[in-house]
């Protein structure tokens, strides 16, 4: 049984696109990391840039392995490509889950620039705290004046003898974020679908290589 040429060339094309995409991500993230001032990259954003460098490098390597495995019909390279894609997919899913489940530290213990950014957000968004509300700051005495609710028509709550915004700023951010969410979700689903498609192609080609060489009955 010969290896299906259509699937073989589809796998090669997929991996070539994957390889170019990895180079693009790696180049952009390395450039952004080296020009932190120009891109206004703070210490809080730097871990995300480092993650992009890692993802770009791994994507480039996996794309190269996949291309070589498809052209040479090498079972080991195809298996390595499949395992690498699977590991990358699990790593990305784990990172998403980690971000959603990560407990917030009290904002009162956050760096000064983070506190100032939140206070600016609270004044403009008529909100307080991040995901829970005023208690995200730790306790009632730590809640800043930016949370003071002077307009009683808004969602206010009594805290420590004063009125503060009861709505967490996450609600305000999600309202703004909804305009971009569909696009971002589509991109994430598209990338995940490509990874799964690549694993399917590599599995099929690997199986056909095994059959061709008599390793599978």
TrEMBL record:
Subcellular location, record wording: Membrane
Spans through the membrane: 9-28, 48-71, 78-97, 180-211
Region forming the signal peptide: none
Disulfide bonds: 128-147
Gene3D superfamilies: Tetraspanin
SUPFAM superfamilies with a match to the protein in the record: Tetraspanin
Alphabetic keyword roster: Disulfide bond, Membrane, Transmembrane, Transmembrane helix
One Pfam family named in its UniProt record: Tetraspanin
One GO cellular component term: plasma membrane
Membrane topology annotation: Multi-pass membrane protein
Family as reported in the entry's similarity comment: Belongs to the tetraspanin (TM4SF) family.
Protein name: Tetraspanin
Organism: Pleuronectes platessa
Lineage, opening ranks: Eukaryota, Metazoa, Chordata, Craniata, Vertebrata
């Amino acid at each position: 049984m010969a290896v299906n040429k259509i699937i073989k060339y589809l796998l090669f094309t997929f991996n070539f696109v994957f390889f170019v995409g990895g180079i693009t991500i790696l180049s952009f993230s390395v450039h952004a990391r080296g020009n932190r001032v120009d891109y206004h990259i703070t210490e809080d954003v730097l871990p995300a840039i480092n993650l992009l460098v890692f993802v770009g490098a791994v994507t480039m390597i996996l794309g190269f392995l996949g291309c070589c495995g498809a052209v040479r019909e090498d079972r080991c390279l195809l298996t390595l490509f499949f395992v690498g894609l699977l590991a990358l997919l699990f790593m990305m899913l784990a990172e998403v889950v980690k971000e959603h489940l990560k407990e917030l530290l009290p904002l009162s213990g956050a760096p000064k620039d983070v506190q100032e950014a939140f206070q600016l957000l609270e004044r403009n968004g008529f909100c307080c705290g991040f995901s829970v509300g005023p208690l995200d700051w730790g306790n009632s005495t730590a809640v800043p004046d930016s949370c003071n609710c002077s307009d009683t028509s808004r969602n206010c709550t009594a805290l420590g003898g004063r009125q503060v915004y009861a709505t967490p700023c996450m609600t305000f951010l999600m309202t703004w974020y909804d305009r971009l969410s569909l696009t971002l979700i589509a991109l994430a689903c598209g990338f995940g679908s490509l990874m799964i498609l690549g694993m399917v192609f590599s599995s099929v080609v690997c199986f056909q290589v095994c059959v061709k060489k008599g390793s599978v009955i």
